[in-house]
Amino acid sequence: MNASDSMSPAQEKHPEAHSKKHLLAWAIVLIVCGLLLLPLLHHSKTASTAGPKPGSATEVNVATATTGSMDIYLDALGTVTPQNTINVYSQVSGRVVSVNYREGQMVSKGQTLVEIDPRPYQAELQTALGSLKRDSALLEQARADLKRYQEAVKTHAVSEQTVYDEQQTVKQYEGTVQNDQGTVQYDKVELSYCHIVAPISGHIGLRLIDAGNTVFSGSSSTIAVVTQIRPMTVVFSIPEDRIEQIRQRVAKGGPMAVDIYDRAQATKLATGKLLTLDNAVDTTTGTVKLRAIFDNADGNLFPNQFVNARLRVGSVDNAILIPTVAVQYNGPQAFVYRLQPNKTVAIQNVTIINTEKGQSAVQGLAAGNTVVTTNFDRVQEGAPVTIAGEQKQPGATPATH
């Protein structure tokens, strides 16, 4: 029985209406299928545009592994610490006559800073000198009398007791003269304190006193602060497990270079050498302090400035060097994409020995090997690649190893 045989009488009367209903049903089915397939088609299109087509080559930049030396550094935060910072106080009381320094100037050792009224101390010194002169004359007279008595006792003109008494008188005057001499020396020192000078050469701070002020001996008021600028030191800390390595280098007597950079590690401020280690480990931090010294001729190091210190502890010789950007990581394992002779890449595990200034010293490669440095998200094991810029040089063959 065919379809025409199974038609109902109503369908036989209206065959055109039956055909329209049949087409409408098929149209609804096609629309529903299209809606269901649309997300799959969109995902397929996105996937096809997200990565390279199978078999297509990815353009990459490459670098060649070389052999060379690399310095090994310890990095640490440090503080610029002057060797000497002197707070100048007045050791006598009196009125300030003059202030002979300018704020922020460089002063030399012995240069006059402040003058205190010296007249009271000059008067005391004059009194002490007068007492010394008087007692010195009395001593000379007593010595002359003793000499006469010693001659007279030989002829029994005076007694032995008189000679003995005169000897003791001479000793008393000698003691008095010594006391007067000490008083004179003390008054001279006191008078010199009225003339306050720079104890060291260095940079003086802001002005702390003015002429006309009265200062007092033993007061806590500072007259001036002088900081030694040249040379300058930097104190920084390193982990305690590095102590033995540094001690061995210090014991050999060779200088250990230290570079100082600003807080942003953008500008190199100075280069000097390690001076010494502290005598104990700080148990709260597990570190030990080191001090490095710098001539600071240009004054780049400023007292109490925070800096970054880089201590050179050794070097790696005859190392295989590659750009650090070529190194990738799969968990703790470092690897690189090595370019093969057939212009595909292979994953090569490496061991990082040291990293410095955009280069890494590695084990696991040979000099002359070529490694990929870009487009890692589009490269995988065995994938074909082209070298960027290679098409601009027809006939050139990139180095592949």
The CATH class name of the largest domain reads: Mainly Beta
Shape: elongated
Number of DSSP strands? 22
CATH architecture classification of the largest domain: Beta Barrel
C-alpha-based Rg, rounded: 47 Å
Discrete helix count: 5
Low-confidence stretches: 1-6, 9-13, 43-51, 392-401
Q: Taking all residues together, what is the mean pLDDT?
A: 86
Integer count of domains: 3
Largest sheet: 6 strands, antiparallel, barrel
Helix content: 25-40%
| CA distance, first residue to last residue | 77 Å
> In the CATH hierarchy, what is the superfamily of the largest domain?
RNA polymerase II/Efflux pump adaptor protein, barrel-sandwich hybrid domain
Classify the fold: give the CATH topology of the largest domain. OB fold (Dihydrolipoamide Acetyltransferase, E2P)
